[in-house]
């Protein structure tokens, strides 16, 4: 019979929240085990944020090389070496994995690699290379993340489609890439592969891209992609798939539409990694979509068990997972930090970027808020003109009578950095005139904030 190894705490899954908590507690002298199937550092480093943004940067350079004539420099015969792009991406990932491994080693935590599942409350069995280890601890922290969803579409699984993971490792450039799903991952990967030289078609079931954004943002994003030659097909329902990705694949719609490609990439949402890991044996409840049910301090239905990150239904961003760590740390220390009312920003790394913090205009209407809107075209910002980055706009939602900033959206160059300025003002409870009247350096993109908030109408 396999002996049970005991620890002070077990982190089940090595994502951002889990690994941060584990290293901190291990450095403090606690006996900590991290159970991880194989991605040292978590999915962000291995298969998500870091490799995708590295690929996107390579695509940006390729695009800039092909468009230098607008700046007075002529470069001829520009071509993409996809194996070199892939190898650069892999090098960046390997360096960050090594950095994380060094952090694990220095902290003194016990890294247990293998597939884990609960076999009893607070007891996890880990299988790797035929060996079995059983671990137990009075405190368990689940941080398993999500995987790409493969929808139940006839012929889709048989077509062996790419997900973002496989797309990041391609050695040959697709000639015609079909992207199933127009969400953030789909949009980012579509533009990247288009800029690397592939013909790209986005096949989206909904009536528009970025449906959670205001209509002007959705249209602006669509225009950006279409202006680069990406075909955007909307309202594509009752799909069927024929063929094999990497050879020839055909996606058909219920109304007779047909799209043919060499490769098929699925970017149709995320599924929590909760199936088949014995959560029922541990007394841990999940919702109808499979996400672990938690309270506002991320405690599960099982005493002494917390869930963090995407698997707990938190916003699917690494920075949200990091804040989950802070929430759990507060819970352990009898603090009062919670997930309730968090101001979580996000950026879509297309070019130009789209960024948002707080609510948009559609949210304000839905919530019945009285508000004012200010909008500014990027084209009027001097720095945007000097950079020839004139696409997009800034948009702010402001209270009708208190001057509170409800939200900020931006489609434009450096949108993520500019958004952070507004976020700091919102966190500090500053009224919008503070940004309107601030002395902002000229010429910068952030200078546009003064111009934007000058457009807010007088309060009612």
From TrEMBL:
The organism's place on the tree of life at top rank: Bacteria
Domain Pyridine nucleotide-disulphide oxidoreductase dimerisation, first and last residues per copy: 344-449
SUPFAM superfamilies: FAD/NAD(P)-binding domain, FAD/NAD-linked reductases, dimerisation (C-terminal) domain
Entry keyword Transcription: no
Cofactor(s) essential for the protein: FAD
Keyword match Nuclease: no
Stored InterPro entries: FAD/NAD-bd_sf, FAD/NAD-binding_dom, FAD/NAD-linked_Rdtase_dimer_sf, Pyr_nuc-diS_OxRdtase, Pyr_nucl-diS_OxRdtase_dimer
Domain FAD/NAD(P)-binding intervals: 7-322
Annotated Gene3D superfamilies: 3.30.390.30, FAD/NAD(P)-binding domain (3.50.50.60)
Swiss-Prot/TrEMBL keywords: FAD, Flavoprotein
Family as reported in the entry's similarity comment: Belongs to the class-I pyridine nucleotide-disulfide oxidoreductase family.
The protein, known as: FAD-dependent oxidoreductase
